Amino acid sequence: MAIGREAILGWLDALRQVYAANRERLTELDAAIGDADHGTNMDRGFTAVHAALAAQAPSDAGDILKSAAMVLIRTVGGAAGPLYGTFFLRAAAACAGKTELSPADVVALFQAGIEGVQQRGKAEPGDKTMIDALLPALAAMRAAAARGADIAGLMDDGVAAAEAGMLGTIPLQARKGRASYLGARSIGHQDPGATSAFLLVKAAAATWRA
Amino acid sequence: MKKLINDPANARREFLAGLALAHADLLAVIQDPVYVVRAGAPVQGKTGVISGGGSGHEPMHAGFVGRGMLDAACPGEVFTSPTPDQIEAATLAVDGGAGVLHIVKNYTGDIMNFEMAAELCQARGVEVRAVVINDDVAVEDSLYTAGRRGVGTTVLAEKICGAAAERGYGLARVAELGERVNRHGRSMGVALTSCTVPAAGRPNFVIGADEIEMGIGIHGEPGRERSALLPAAEVTARMAEAILADLPFTSGDRVIAIVNGMGGTPLMELYLVYAELERILRARGITVARRLVGNYITSLEMAGCSLTLLKADDEMLSMWDDPVVTAGLRWGA
C-alpha cells in the first residue's frame, strides 16, 4: 500500500485543523515554561500553508512539502519556525520527484525531517524538546517498517512512541530553549514543542489510515 | 485583556504604520516582509548594522533605527522572533557593499532565525557577521541551559556599534567592538506584574499582589526566584550585587548604567531606583560615566525594571557620545 499526493495535502490540511483546535492548549503549555506563543504561531503557520496550497498545489510530494516549508519559515517565527521549516524542507528533499510514497518512503520522510530538526536545534534526547517525541517515533516507525508493517501500522507505532515521548517530557528539566531558564521549575510541565511534534505525527497517522 | 488595539492579529502592522507616520524623517516601514529601515539606506561603503526580535519591547529595536544606531530592525510578532525572510530582506536593503552586522539576542528562536537568514544572505554574496548578546546574570551560564538571555546590553551594543559603523569602521572591527561590549555588560531584571501578549489574551504568568519575580526575562517568561515585595533599596541592592559579582566590577571601573523600565513602571520609581543604584556603585568606588533612565527594552505593560552595567573603556564612551538620531535615543545631532 502506498500513499499519494492527495495524502500529503490531506496531512497538511489536517495539521491546519489540529493546530487550530489545539491553539489554546499549546499556548497554555508554552505559557507555563516559555513565552505563550506556540499555539498562535503554529496556527498562523499552518493556516498560511493551507492558503498557499489552496491557491496552487505542486504536483509531487517533494514540491508540496517544500512549499509548506517555505511558508512555515516565513510565517511561524519563534524557534518553531526554523525547526518545523527545516523538518519540511528536509522531508521534501527525501520525497523529491515522488508522486507515491511507499512505507519505506514514509520512514525516509520522517527520518530526514527529524534529523533536520536535530541539526537546527542541536537538542539531545532528554533536553525536554520536540526531539523527545520525534526520535522515539522515528525509532518505532523504522522498527515497524523492518517488520514489514504497512503505512497505517508503522504510523500507529510512531504515534504511540511519540505520545509516550511527549508525556515523558513532564518530569524532565529543560536544557534547551526558553524553558531552560527556569531550571528545576520546568519540571512537572509537558513540553509544548514535544506536544506539537506529537500532533504532527498523529495527524499523519489519522489522515493516512483512510 | 484591556489594551488599546483593534485586532490582535493586526497589532504589529498597525503599530509600525504609526511609527512610520510619526518618524517619516528617520525611517521607513516595509510591510512584506516586515522590516524598518533607516531613511537613505543603504549608505554606500558603510558597514550595515541591523537587529531584530519580537515586538513588544519598544522602543527596542525599531525605535533605534536611524543615523548613528541601526540601519534596520526586523520586528517579529509580539515576543516572537522575526523570520529569516525578514532578516534577509533587511540585510540586503542596508548592505552598502561593506557587509552587515547582525546584533542578536541569545534566545533559541532568534539565534536559529538569524542563522538561517545569514546562510541566505551569504548565498547571495553579502558578508554577514553576528554578535550574540547574552548578558542576563539571572540565568546560570551552563552547558545545561540555552545560555544567558540577551537583555539591556543590547541597547548599548546597538548604540556603540552603530556609532562605529557611522565613523567608517569595517565589519570585523564593528563586530569586535560589539563582542567587547557584550563581554563587559551585565544585566538583571525584576517583575512586579505579569504582561499579556495580545494574541494570547491572558497574562503570561500569575504573580501575587504582594510578590515580585527576581530574574525575569523580557518576554514575561518566569524568572528564577519568587519573593515577597521588598523596598526599592533592597530590590536594587539584590540585583546590583548579582551584577557586580558576576563580571566582576571593581573599584575604579567606569560604567554606563541603564535603569530600564519594563513598560508599566513610572519614571518616578525608575529615578528612585537610579538613586539607590548610584549610591551602591559610589560606595564601591565605581563611577557612573554615562547613564540612561527610562523605558528602552520593555515587556509590554509589565511593571518592573532591569539594571544594566557596562564596564566602559575610552573607545566605548567615545562611541556612546557620538550623535544619534532615532525615535528612542537622540543626542548630539
Structure write-up:
The complex is a heterodimer of chains A (210) and B (333). Chain A has nine helices and two strands. By secondary structure, chain A is an all-alpha fold. Chain A has one domain (3-209): Serine Threonine Protein Phosphatase 5, Tetratricopeptide repeat, CATH 1.25.40.340. In chain A, helix 1 (5-21) crosses helix 9, helix 4 (61-75) runs antiparallel to helix 5 (80-94) and helix 6 packs antiparallel against helix 7 (131-146). Chain A is globular and about 45 Å long. Helices cover 32% and strands 24% of the residues of chain B. In chain B, helix 4 packs antiparallel against helix 5, helix 4 crosses helix 8 and helix 6 packs across helix 7 (267-283). Chain B is globular. The N and C termini of chain B lie far apart (41 Å). At the A-B interface, helix 2, helix 3, helix 4 and helix 5 of A face strand 4 and helix 3 of B.
Keywords, separated by commas or semicolons:
heterodimer; A: 210 residues; mainly alpha; 9 helices; 2% strand; globular; B: 333 residues; alpha/beta; Hypothetical Protein Tm841, Chain: A,domain 3; 2 domains; six-stranded mixed β-sheet
Spatial strand sequence of the major β-sheet of chain A: 1-2
Overall outline of chain B:
globular
> In total, how many domains does the architecture of chain A comprise?
1
CATH architecture assignment of the largest domain in chain B:
3-Layer(aba) Sandwich
Strand order of the largest sheet of chain B: 1-2-4-3-5-6
Through-space gap between termini of chain B: 41 Å
Any guess at the CATH architecture of chain A?
Alpha Horseshoe
Derived from helix and strand composition plus strand pairing, the structural class of chain A reads: mainly alpha
Beta-strand content of chain A: under 5%
Report the total helices of chain A.
9
How many helices of chain B does DSSP assign?
A: 8
Question: What value does the average pLDDT of chain A take?
Answer: 95
Order of helices and strands of chain A: EHHHHHEHHHH
Major sheet details of chain A:
2 strands, antiparallel
Oligomer: heterodimer
**Averaging pLDDT over every residue of chain B, what do you get?**
95
User: Can you count the beta strands of chain A?
Assistant: 2
In whole angstroms, the N-to-C terminal distance of chain A is 11 Å
Q: Globular, elongated, flat, extended or rod-shaped: what is the shape of chain A?
A: globular
